[in-house]
Amino acid sequence: MPKNKFQDVIFTIIMATIMVYGMVVYNVALNTGTVNGTTFLTATHELPIMVPIAFVLEFFIVGKIAKMLAFTVMRPTDRPQFITYAISICICCIMCPIMSLVATFLFKEPSFGMWVKTWAMNFPMAICYQMFYCGPLVRLIFRAIFVRKNAEAPENMCAVDTE
Asked: pTM of the full predicted structure?
Protein backbone atom coordinates (compact mmCIF):
# COMPACT_ATOMS: atom_id res chain seq x y z
CA MET A 1 0.00 0.00 0.00
CA PRO A 2 1.79 3.23 1.03
CA LYS A 3 5.29 3.24 -0.46
CA ASN A 4 6.70 6.40 1.15
CA LYS A 5 6.05 8.79 4.05
CA PHE A 6 3.82 11.10 2.01
CA GLN A 7 1.59 8.21 0.96
CA ASP A 8 1.60 6.90 4.54
CA VAL A 9 0.37 10.30 5.80
CA ILE A 10 -2.40 10.43 3.18
CA PHE A 11 -3.45 6.82 3.87
CA THR A 12 -3.54 7.46 7.63
CA ILE A 13 -5.56 10.68 7.22
CA ILE A 14 -8.15 8.90 5.08
CA MET A 15 -8.29 5.90 7.41
CA ALA A 16 -8.54 7.99 10.58
CA THR A 17 -11.28 10.18 9.12
CA ILE A 18 -13.47 7.35 7.84
CA MET A 19 -12.90 5.12 10.86
CA VAL A 20 -13.54 7.88 13.40
CA TYR A 21 -16.65 9.08 11.56
CA GLY A 22 -18.12 5.57 11.47
CA MET A 23 -17.40 4.96 15.14
CA VAL A 24 -18.78 8.35 16.19
CA VAL A 25 -21.97 7.67 14.21
CA TYR A 26 -22.21 4.34 16.02
CA ASN A 27 -21.73 5.97 19.44
CA VAL A 28 -24.23 8.73 18.71
CA ALA A 29 -26.73 6.05 17.66
CA LEU A 30 -26.06 4.13 20.89
CA ASN A 31 -26.54 7.28 22.97
CA THR A 32 -29.73 8.45 21.20
CA GLY A 33 -31.20 5.01 20.55
CA THR A 34 -31.95 5.82 16.92
CA VAL A 35 -30.32 6.32 13.53
CA ASN A 36 -31.61 9.17 11.38
CA GLY A 37 -30.25 12.19 9.52
CA THR A 38 -29.39 13.99 12.73
CA THR A 39 -27.25 11.04 13.82
CA PHE A 40 -24.94 11.55 10.85
CA LEU A 41 -24.91 15.33 11.24
CA THR A 42 -24.25 15.18 14.99
CA ALA A 43 -21.29 12.87 14.37
CA THR A 44 -19.54 15.54 12.29
CA HIS A 45 -19.24 17.78 15.37
CA GLU A 46 -16.76 15.41 17.02
CA LEU A 47 -14.58 14.93 13.92
CA PRO A 48 -12.37 18.03 14.40
CA ILE A 49 -11.45 16.73 17.84
CA MET A 50 -11.21 12.98 17.32
CA VAL A 51 -9.63 12.72 13.84
CA PRO A 52 -6.40 14.56 14.76
CA ILE A 53 -6.10 12.48 17.93
CA ALA A 54 -6.60 9.25 15.98
CA PHE A 55 -4.13 10.36 13.29
CA VAL A 56 -1.37 11.26 15.74
CA LEU A 57 -1.83 8.07 17.76
CA GLU A 58 -1.92 5.78 14.74
CA PHE A 59 0.81 7.46 12.69
CA PHE A 60 3.39 7.98 15.42
CA ILE A 61 2.73 5.23 17.97
CA VAL A 62 0.14 2.56 17.28
CA GLY A 63 1.08 1.79 13.67
CA LYS A 64 4.62 0.84 14.65
CA ILE A 65 3.51 -1.26 17.61
CA ALA A 66 0.81 -2.98 15.53
CA LYS A 67 3.32 -3.94 12.83
CA MET A 68 5.67 -5.40 15.44
CA LEU A 69 2.82 -7.38 16.99
CA ALA A 70 1.51 -8.56 13.62
CA PHE A 71 4.93 -9.89 12.65
CA THR A 72 5.07 -12.00 15.80
CA VAL A 73 2.47 -14.23 14.12
CA MET A 74 3.13 -13.41 10.45
CA ARG A 75 6.25 -13.78 8.31
CA PRO A 76 7.31 -11.32 5.61
CA THR A 77 6.93 -14.17 3.12
CA ASP A 78 3.22 -14.64 3.97
CA ARG A 79 0.58 -13.37 1.57
CA PRO A 80 0.44 -9.55 1.69
CA GLN A 81 -3.34 -9.68 2.10
CA PHE A 82 -3.02 -11.67 5.34
CA ILE A 83 -0.27 -9.38 6.61
CA THR A 84 -2.60 -6.42 5.98
CA TYR A 85 -5.39 -8.16 7.91
CA ALA A 86 -3.07 -8.96 10.82
CA ILE A 87 -1.86 -5.36 11.04
CA SER A 88 -5.44 -4.05 10.83
CA ILE A 89 -6.56 -6.32 13.65
CA CYS A 90 -3.60 -5.27 15.81
CA ILE A 91 -4.32 -1.59 15.15
CA CYS A 92 -7.97 -2.09 16.20
CA CYS A 93 -6.93 -3.96 19.33
CA ILE A 94 -4.73 -1.02 20.37
CA MET A 95 -6.69 1.96 19.04
CA CYS A 96 -10.11 0.92 20.35
CA PRO A 97 -9.26 1.07 24.06
CA ILE A 98 -7.23 4.25 23.61
CA MET A 99 -9.89 6.08 21.58
CA SER A 100 -12.58 4.80 23.95
CA LEU A 101 -10.59 6.31 26.83
CA VAL A 102 -10.26 9.63 25.00
CA ALA A 103 -13.99 9.67 24.18
CA THR A 104 -14.87 8.77 27.77
CA PHE A 105 -12.87 11.74 29.09
CA LEU A 106 -14.09 14.19 26.46
CA PHE A 107 -17.74 13.27 25.98
CA LYS A 108 -18.91 11.16 28.93
CA GLU A 109 -18.72 11.06 32.69
CA PRO A 110 -15.12 9.90 33.18
CA SER A 111 -14.71 6.78 35.28
CA PHE A 112 -13.02 3.42 34.94
CA GLY A 113 -16.38 1.67 34.60
CA MET A 114 -17.55 4.05 31.87
CA TRP A 115 -14.29 3.53 29.96
CA VAL A 116 -14.60 -0.27 30.15
CA LYS A 117 -18.26 -0.08 29.06
CA THR A 118 -17.39 2.23 26.14
CA TRP A 119 -14.51 -0.01 25.10
CA ALA A 120 -16.67 -3.15 25.34
CA MET A 121 -19.44 -1.57 23.27
CA ASN A 122 -17.04 -0.19 20.67
CA PHE A 123 -14.68 -3.11 20.11
CA PRO A 124 -16.99 -5.51 18.21
CA MET A 125 -18.16 -2.68 15.96
CA ALA A 126 -14.63 -1.33 15.44
CA ILE A 127 -13.18 -4.69 14.40
CA CYS A 128 -16.06 -5.51 12.04
CA TYR A 129 -16.19 -1.99 10.59
CA GLN A 130 -12.42 -2.00 10.02
CA MET A 131 -12.20 -5.47 8.47
CA PHE A 132 -15.32 -5.46 6.31
CA TYR A 133 -16.04 -1.84 5.38
CA CYS A 134 -13.59 0.87 6.35
CA GLY A 135 -10.35 -0.97 5.53
CA PRO A 136 -11.40 -2.13 2.04
CA LEU A 137 -12.95 1.27 1.25
CA VAL A 138 -9.84 3.19 2.31
CA ARG A 139 -7.58 0.85 0.32
CA LEU A 140 -9.83 1.34 -2.73
CA ILE A 141 -9.70 5.13 -2.35
CA PHE A 142 -5.94 5.02 -1.80
CA ARG A 143 -5.38 2.89 -4.93
CA ALA A 144 -7.59 5.25 -6.93
CA ILE A 145 -5.44 8.20 -5.86
CA PHE A 146 -1.95 6.69 -6.12
CA VAL A 147 -1.97 3.71 -8.46
CA ARG A 148 -3.12 5.77 -11.45
CA LYS A 149 -0.08 8.01 -11.13
CA ASN A 150 2.22 4.96 -11.05
CA ALA A 151 0.28 3.16 -13.80
CA GLU A 152 0.69 6.07 -16.22
CA ALA A 153 4.48 5.95 -16.04
CA PRO A 154 4.95 2.47 -17.65
CA GLU A 155 2.43 3.34 -20.41
CA ASN A 156 4.41 6.45 -21.28
CA MET A 157 7.62 4.45 -21.32
CA CYS A 158 6.07 1.88 -23.69
CA ALA A 159 4.99 4.67 -26.05
CA VAL A 160 8.53 6.03 -26.08
CA ASP A 161 9.96 2.55 -26.77
CA THR A 162 7.72 2.01 -29.81
CA GLU A 163 8.67 5.31 -31.48
From this structure: 0.87
